[in-house]
Protein backbone atom coordinates (compact mmCIF):
# COMPACT_ATOMS: atom_id res chain seq x y z
CA UNK A 1 0.00 0.00 0.00
CA UNK A 2 1.28 3.43 -0.90
CA UNK A 3 2.24 5.77 1.91
CA UNK A 4 0.37 9.02 2.43
CA UNK A 5 1.47 11.71 -0.05
CA UNK A 6 3.53 14.41 1.57
CA UNK A 7 5.23 16.66 -0.98
CA UNK A 8 4.15 18.99 -3.79
CA UNK A 9 6.12 19.10 -7.03
CA UNK A 10 8.10 22.25 -6.16
CA UNK A 11 9.40 20.67 -2.93
CA UNK A 12 10.30 17.41 -4.67
CA UNK A 13 12.05 19.36 -7.40
CA UNK A 14 14.19 21.16 -4.81
CA UNK A 15 14.83 18.01 -2.78
CA UNK A 16 16.09 16.08 -5.78
CA UNK A 17 17.66 19.04 -7.61
CA UNK A 18 15.75 18.39 -10.83
CA UNK A 19 13.42 20.58 -12.86
CA UNK A 20 9.67 20.20 -12.23
CA UNK A 21 9.25 19.50 -15.95
CA UNK A 22 11.45 16.43 -15.52
CA UNK A 23 9.10 15.18 -12.82
CA UNK A 24 6.15 15.76 -15.14
CA UNK A 25 7.97 13.84 -17.89
CA UNK A 26 8.63 10.91 -15.56
CA UNK A 27 4.92 10.90 -14.73
CA UNK A 28 3.95 10.98 -18.42
CA UNK A 29 6.26 8.04 -19.05
CA UNK A 30 4.61 6.15 -16.19
CA UNK A 31 7.73 5.97 -14.01
CA UNK A 32 5.91 7.52 -11.04
CA UNK A 33 2.24 8.08 -10.32
CA UNK A 34 1.82 10.79 -7.71
CA UNK A 35 -1.62 11.12 -6.22
CA UNK A 36 -3.63 14.24 -6.92
CA UNK A 37 -5.70 16.56 -4.79
CA UNK A 38 -9.18 17.63 -5.82
CA UNK A 39 -7.51 20.73 -7.27
CA UNK A 40 -5.29 18.42 -9.38
CA UNK A 41 -2.08 19.20 -7.44
CA UNK A 42 0.48 16.41 -7.58
CA UNK A 43 1.39 14.93 -4.20
CA UNK A 44 4.46 12.71 -3.92
CA UNK A 45 4.93 10.12 -1.16
CA UNK A 46 8.20 9.00 0.40
CA UNK A 47 7.90 5.89 -1.78
CA UNK A 48 7.69 8.13 -4.88
CA UNK A 49 10.76 10.05 -3.70
CA UNK A 50 12.76 6.83 -3.32
CA UNK A 51 11.74 5.69 -6.79
CA UNK A 52 12.71 9.08 -8.23
CA UNK A 53 16.11 8.89 -6.51
CA UNK A 54 16.64 5.50 -8.15
CA UNK A 55 15.66 6.90 -11.56
CA UNK A 56 17.98 9.88 -11.13
CA UNK A 57 20.85 7.55 -10.19
CA UNK A 58 20.21 5.51 -13.32
CA UNK A 59 20.06 8.53 -15.62
CA UNK A 60 22.61 10.95 -14.16
CA UNK A 61 25.14 8.67 -12.47
CA UNK A 62 24.97 5.58 -14.66
CA UNK A 63 24.06 7.18 -18.01
CA UNK A 64 20.97 5.05 -18.63
CA UNK A 65 18.56 6.54 -21.16
CA UNK A 66 14.82 6.72 -20.50
CA UNK A 67 14.07 3.58 -22.52
CA UNK A 68 16.60 1.75 -20.35
CA UNK A 69 15.02 3.18 -17.20
CA UNK A 70 11.66 1.82 -18.30
CA UNK A 71 13.12 -1.64 -18.86
CA UNK A 72 14.93 -1.60 -15.51
CA UNK A 73 11.82 -0.45 -13.63
CA UNK A 74 9.73 -3.17 -15.31
CA UNK A 75 12.35 -5.81 -14.46
CA UNK A 76 12.54 -4.56 -10.87
CA UNK A 77 8.76 -4.84 -10.58
CA UNK A 78 8.83 -8.36 -12.03
CA UNK A 79 11.58 -9.37 -9.58
CA UNK A 80 9.51 -8.04 -6.68
CA UNK A 81 6.47 -9.98 -7.88
CA UNK A 82 8.52 -13.17 -8.25
CA UNK A 83 10.03 -12.71 -4.78
CA UNK A 84 6.51 -12.34 -3.34
CA UNK A 85 5.39 -15.49 -5.16
CA UNK A 86 8.41 -17.43 -3.87
CA UNK A 87 7.71 -16.21 -0.33
CA UNK A 88 4.08 -17.32 -0.64
CA UNK A 89 5.22 -20.70 -1.96
CA UNK A 90 7.71 -21.13 0.88
CA UNK A 91 5.03 -20.17 3.42
CA UNK A 92 2.64 -22.67 1.81
CA UNK A 93 5.28 -25.42 1.94
CA UNK A 94 6.08 -24.62 5.58
CA UNK A 95 2.37 -24.75 6.47
CA UNK A 96 1.87 -28.04 4.61
CA UNK A 97 4.92 -29.69 6.12
CA UNK A 98 4.44 -28.21 9.55
CA UNK A 99 6.67 -29.88 12.11
CA UNK A 100 8.10 -32.22 9.48
CA UNK A 101 9.97 -29.31 7.85
CA UNK A 102 13.24 -29.81 9.73
CA UNK A 103 13.06 -33.55 9.17
CA UNK A 104 12.54 -33.08 5.42
CA UNK A 105 15.45 -30.64 5.21
CA UNK A 106 17.75 -33.08 7.05
CA UNK A 107 16.68 -35.91 4.74
CA UNK A 108 17.43 -33.77 1.68
CA UNK A 109 13.82 -33.56 0.50
CA UNK A 110 14.02 -29.80 0.83
CA UNK A 111 17.25 -28.03 0.04
CA UNK A 112 17.86 -24.85 2.00
CA UNK A 113 19.19 -21.95 -0.06
CA UNK A 114 20.58 -18.55 0.67
CA UNK A 115 18.37 -15.56 -0.04
CA UNK A 116 19.48 -13.82 -3.23
CA UNK A 117 20.86 -10.35 -2.83
CA UNK A 118 19.50 -7.66 -5.09
CA UNK A 119 21.98 -5.02 -6.20
CA UNK A 120 21.25 -1.89 -4.25
CA UNK A 121 22.31 1.49 -5.50
CA UNK A 122 23.53 3.90 -2.85
CA UNK A 123 22.73 7.50 -3.61
CA UNK A 124 25.14 10.09 -2.29
CA UNK A 125 24.37 13.79 -2.47
CA UNK A 126 27.35 16.07 -2.92
Question: Topology, please?
Answer:
Layout: H1 9-16, H2 20-28, E1 35-36, E2 42-43, H3 46-61, H4 66-97, H5 101-106
Antiparallel strand pairs: 1-2
Overview of the molecule:
By secondary structure, this protein is mainly α. Helix content is 56%, strand content 3%. A two-stranded antiparallel ribbon has the order 1-2. β1 and β2 form a beta hairpin. The longest helix is centred in the middle third of the chain and has 32 residues. The radius of gyration is 20 Å and the shape is elongated. The model has no long low-confidence stretch (mean pLDDT 86).
Q: Main β-sheet, in a few words?
A: 2 strands, antiparallel
| Count of DSSP strands | 2
Q: How widely separated are the two ends?
A: 32 Å
Shape: elongated
The average pLDDT value, as a whole number, equals 86
The percentage helix is 55-70%
Which value, in Å, is the CA radius of gyration? 20 Å
Proportion of residues in extended strands: under 5%
Order of helix and strand elements from N to C terminus: HHEEHHH
- In the predicted model, the low-confidence regions spanning at least 5 consecutive residues are none
Q: Strand order across the biggest sheet?
A: 1-2
Overall SS class: mainly alpha
| Helical segment count | 5
Q: Characteristics of this structure?
A:
mainly alpha; elongated; two-stranded antiparallel sheet; single chain; about 130 residues; about 55% helix; 5 helices; 2 strands
